[in-house]
Write a structure and sequence with these properties.
The structure is a homodimer of 214-residue chains. By secondary structure, the first copy, chain A, is of the alpha/beta class. Chain A has one domain: P-loop containing nucleotide triphosphate hydrolases (Rossmann fold, 3-Layer(aba) Sandwich). The first copy, chain A, has a seven-stranded parallel β-sheet with strand order 3-2-4-1-5-6-7, sandwiched between helices. In chain A, strand 6, helix 7 and strand 7 form a beta-alpha-beta unit. Chain A is globular, with a radius of gyration of 16 Å. Chains A and B meet through helix 5 of A and helix 5 of B.
Chain lengths: 214, 214
Amino acid sequence: MDLEAHVLAANDALAAVNRRRFAETGILAVNLMSSPGSGKTTLLERTVRDLAGELPVAVLEGDQETLVDAERIRAAGARAVQVNTGAGCHLDATMVARGVDVLVPEDGSVLFVENVGNLVCPALFDLGEAARVVVMSVTEGADKPLKYPHMFRTADLVVVNKIDLLPYVDFDVAACVANARRARPGVATIEVSATRGDGLEGWYAWLRALHARL
Amino acid sequence: MDLEAHVLAANDALAAVNRRRFAETGILAVNLMSSPGSGKTTLLERTVRDLAGELPVAVLEGDQETLVDAERIRAAGARAVQVNTGAGCHLDATMVARGVDVLVPEDGSVLFVENVGNLVCPALFDLGEAARVVVMSVTEGADKPLKYPHMFRTADLVVVNKIDLLPYVDFDVAACVANARRARPGVATIEVSATRGDGLEGWYAWLRALHARL
C-alpha cells in the first residue's frame, strides 16, 4: 500500500467512527466544500438565523488561520468551533472528532462542517458526514466542475451561489449544471443568493428532508 | 528529515535547475496562483493580445483536468501547453521542466505558469520562477490574505481582479491590501479588471520592469 493509500485508509477508519457517533446521537453532519470566497460562511450565517427555533445548528469551521468564521457564526446565534489547519489544505476525520469534542452539538442537531476553501484536497477525505455539499459562486465560471472533477464526483448537492451577480458576469447556469452532472450524474443543484435570500427555501427543504430521514 | 521536508527539498533542487535554465535563456518565468475562478486565464488571454509584437509570451497551464485553458491561450495567439495534475493540487518543478520541454518558449520571452486554482498547496512548491503573483477577485472577500497567509507570504505582486464588480459586492479594497501586507509587508498590489481592461497598464509596466532586469 503506498503512503497516500495508507493515509486515506487510516482516515476512512476514523471517519467511520465519526459516522457511527453522529448516527447514535441523531446528528445530521453536512460537509461543505468550495473554493475560497464562494460564500459558505454567509450561507451558514443566514441558515442559522432562518432555522432558529426549528432546527438546532452547530458549525465546525476549518481554515488555515484566523477565528473570524467561528465568530461570525456565533454572532448569528449558533455554537461554533474553529479548527486551524496551519499549512494543511483540508480537514480530516481526526480534526473533526476533536472539534466535535469541544463543540458538543445537541443531539438531533444539524452539524455543518465548513471545510478549508479548496476545490482539490478536501474531496479525498471522508469526515464521517451524511452528505457532501459543493458550493460554487457564479463568478468562478461554469467550467469549474470539469476542471475539478474529483470534488464534484462525490457531491450530494451542488449549490450555485451569488446569483444576484448574474447580470454582471458571463456565467451560463445551465452549462454549469450540465458540467456538474458530467462529473456526478443526476446530482441535485440549487441556485441561491445567500446575501439576498433567493432560492434559500430549496436549501432548507433539502436539509429538512435529510434531517427527517435520520 | 520528515517526508514533507524531503519532498520539498527534492522539489527545491529541481526548481534550482529550472531557474538556471530560465536565466541562461533570458526567460522571465512568472508563477500565477489563485483560487479557482479568480480570472487568471482571462488576464493571460488579454496580456497575450496586448503584448503581441512587443514581448513573446508562452504559457504553461496547470489544471486537474481539461485542456480548455491552453486552447484559450492558443486562440489568443501564444504558445501554450496544458499539464494535468489528476488528483494533484499543485504544479511542481518536475512538471514545469517537462512542460517547458514540450512548450519550448522563445529565448527572451515571458513564460507564465498558471498554477492549479488553489490558495493552499501551490504556495509550498518553488517552480524556479523569477516572481510569484497571487491573483484574487473582489468577489472572494477581503479576508482571504488572513485566511491563507502562506500563499500571500511569498507573493511578489498581488493582483486584485474583477474590480468591475465592486459596485455589486461588499469588498473593501484598502482592507484587502492591508491584509495582504500583514502577510507580506510592503507587497506591491494592482487593481484590475481583466474583462474590462482597467488597470492593466500597471500590470504590463510591472512585467516590463522585471523583463528589463533579466
